[in-house]
Amino acid sequence: MxxxxxxxxxxxxxxxxxxxLNAGAVAISMIMVVGLLLLIASRGLGxxxxxxxxxxxYDNGTNVVQIIGERVESEEVARERIIESGIKxxxxxxxxxxxxxxxxxxxxxxxxxxLTVTPNELKVTKPEDVMxxxxxxWGNFYGYLKEIKSEGEVLDLYEDIKWQDLEAxxxxxxxxxxxxxxxxxxxxxxxxxxxxKLRLKKRGLELDNVTDPKAFEEITLEENKYTADYQxxxxxxxxxxxxxxxxxxxxxxxxxGTKEIKLADVVKAYRPNALSYGDKLIxxxxxxxxxxxxxxxxxxxxxxxFPAIFGTVIMVLLMSIIVTPFGVIAAxxxxxxxxxxxxxxxxxxSVNNLAGVPSIVYGVFGLGFFVYIVGGTLDELFFAEALPTxxxxxxxxxxxxxxxxxxxxxxxxxxxxxxxxxIPRAVREGSLALGATKAETLWRTVLPMTTPAMxxxxxxxxxxxxxxxxxxxxxxxVKLAPSLPLDGNVPxxxxxxxxxxxxxxxxxxxxxxxxVEAARPLVYATALILVVVIVILNLSAxxxxxxxxxxxxxxxxx
Length: 558
What we know:
Blueprint: H1 2-13, H2 16-45, E1 53-59, E2 64-78, H3 79-84, E3 95-102, H4 106-109, E4 113-117, E5 121-125, E6 130-135, E7 140-150, E8 153-154, H5 159-207, H6 213-244, E9 247-252, E10 258-262, E11 266-270, H7 277-293, E12 296-297, E13 302-303, H8 306-337, H9 342-354, H10 359-382, H11 397-421, H12 425-433, H13 438-465, H14 472-475, H15 502-511, H16 516-557
Antiparallel strand pairs: 1-2, 1-5, 2-3, 3-4, 6-7, 6-11, 7-8, 7-9, 9-10, 12-13
C-alpha cells in the first residue's frame, strides 16, 4: 500500500498527468473545431448540389392535392403535435415523420415551403421531365414545360426537342444579359461617374464665384460629349433589352395552372431528375462558382457574395497597412526610447486594457470621431461642392479600416514589444561598438530581427478584425453596395464608399431575411467562405513570418 502511494505521488509530481490533461484538452478543442467546420461545410456546400424533385399526391385532410418540390429535411414528430396542428393522420404510430418541402413558385402559391406528413403522402414519384427555373425574382419555379413562345407566337415543336430548343434560347438570353451588364456597369457607369464629376466641378466654380463663361463652356462641352455617348449606348441597350425579351415559356405548376415566364427573368433552367452523376457534379461546380463570383439578388437570399468577399479582403488589407506602422512605432517608443517609469507602466496597462474593450465601443468612437468629426471636416474643406451630400462624412471603407486598426493596435504593440525584448543585448552593443548610431542599430539590425514577432501580431490582428461585425455596422458596412471600393474610374481606389462584408452579410441573411428557410443554407455557405478567407489571409502572413524567421535565425544565434 505504501509503495502504491509513493508511486502515485511520484507520478503526480512528475508532471505527466498535467501533460496528458493539456493534450486531452487540445485534442477535444481540435475535435470540436473540426466538427463545427464539417457541420458548416455539409450544411452550406450541400445547398449547391442539384436535389431530387418529387411529385407527391398528398392528402391534406380535406382533399388530395399535387405537390412538386424538393424534400429539404425530415424529422420525427409526436403524433399529438401533428393532430393539434389540425392535420388528420391515419397512422397510429407514436412518432410520425414530417418533411419540409421546398415548393417555390412564391408568386403563385404565396409561400416557398410546405409541410407534409409521410402517412398522408399517397404517391411519390420522381418524374424526369420536371423542371426547375432559378429566376431573378420570386425564387425558384417548379413545374413542367408546356410551350415555348417567340415574339408572342407559340412554336410548333415536338416534345422531344423542346428542352434542347429551350437550352439554346436560354444561352442566347444569357449572352445578351452579359452584354447588357457590361454596358450598364461598364460604359454607362463610367459616363455617369464622369458626368457627376463635371457637375461637382461646375458647382465648385459657382461656390468660388467664378464668372468666366469659358470655364463653364468647357464643362458644358464635356457634358454634351458624354451625354451624346450615353444616348448611343442607351439605344444599343434598349435594342438588347427588346432582343432578350423576345422569348418566353409556358410552365405548368403543381396546382394545374399555367404561367408564362420570360426567359429574360430566368437565370438557370435544369431538370435535376434527368441529370447523371457527372452532370450533377458539373452543375455543382458551376453553381458554387456562381455563388463566389456573382452579385447578390433577392434581398441577398439568392445569387452570389462576391462584393462581400471583395469588401472583406480590401478592408483587412487596409487595416493591416494602417495598424502595422502605428503599432510598431508605439512598441519601439515604449521599449527603446521611453523612460521605464510609472508613466510607461501605466501606458502598458492601458494598452492591455484596450484589448478587452468591447468592439461596439470602438464602433461608436469611429462613428463619432472618424466619420462625423474628421470626415465632416474633410467634406467642408475639400468637398464643399458635394454638400449637403456627404463624401467622407458618412461611413466608408476607410473609416471602417481605421476603426478596426484602433481595435487591433494593442495586439500589434504587445507582440512587437515581446519581439524587441527577445533581441540579445549583445546585438545592440555590437552594432554600437562598430560605430552605428542608436537609430541605425534599431533600423538595420533590431527591427529586421523583430519582423517575425510583428507578423505574429499582424496575424492575431487579422484573425480578430476579419470576423468583427458590430463596429462595421456603424462605420461603413451595408446590406448591398452598388459599387465596389475598387474600380476602373480615376482614382481607382474609392475609400469613401460603403462596402459589403461577409460577417455583416451573415447577420443580414440569417436574421433580417424575409425568407429565413430559403436563406439558411446561404448562412452556412457564407460562414464557410468567411473562415476560408481568414485562413488564407493568416496563412499568407504565417508564410511571410516563417520566411523572415529563417532569414534572421542565424543572426539571432550569433
